Amino acid sequence: MSTMRAEDTDIEELRVVAVAHCILNQSTRWWKEGKRLRRGMVKKVIEALASMRIGAVQMPCPEFSFCGNPRPSRTREEYESLPGFTVHCRRLARDTAENLKALTVLSKRPKIKIVAVIGVERSPTCGVKLTPYRRTVHGGFEYREAKGLFMEALEEELRTLKIVVPMLGLDLKRPENLIAEIKDKAGR
Q1: Please, which contacts does 108-112 make with residues 24 or more away whose CB atoms are closer than 8 Å?
Q2: pTM of the full predicted structure?
C-alpha cells in the first residue's frame, strides 16, 4: 500500500532544470586513448537535485552527436571550423528550446517551471561563463568569458520563444558552487 503525502497531491508547481547531457551521462564527454574514462553521472549534482525535489531534463550533446568517441579535445574556434557543426548546434538548440517550451505550456496542473539551464564550464559547446576559445602556442587553451556554441544558440532560441531562465555553469572541480546557485534560484 502506498502512502501519499498531502504535499504530493496539492502541488501547484513542479520544478525542473535542463542539464547538459554529460551531467547525467559522463560517458559522452570527450575521450581519447590513454585518457581516464568517465562513467556514470555527476553524483553530487544529481543527489542535490533529488534532495531539492527538482527534476532534470537532459539536453543533447552536440559534440558526441556530431563526432562520437573517441574524439580529440577541441576549442570553440576548432568546432566552429568543422563544416556543419554550427548548424548542428543551432538545430539542437531549436529542438531543445521547443521541448522546454512544451514542458511549460502543456503542463496545466501542476505547472512545470524551468528553474535553470545548466551547462558545463570549460566546454567549447556547453560553457556558460568560461569557454576554451583557441589553442595557445604552447598547446594549452586560451579561455574566454563567453558561452559555448550550443549554449549561445540555446540562449538565442529561448529568447525567441520568450522563455526567461537563468543559465548556470557547472564547474566539475567545484560542484558545490552550482548547487548553491540552484538553491538560490529555486528559492530554497
Answers
A1: 109/12, 110/11, 110/12, 110/13, 110/14, 111/12, 111/13, 111/14, 112/13, 112/14, 112/15, 112/16
A2: 0.89
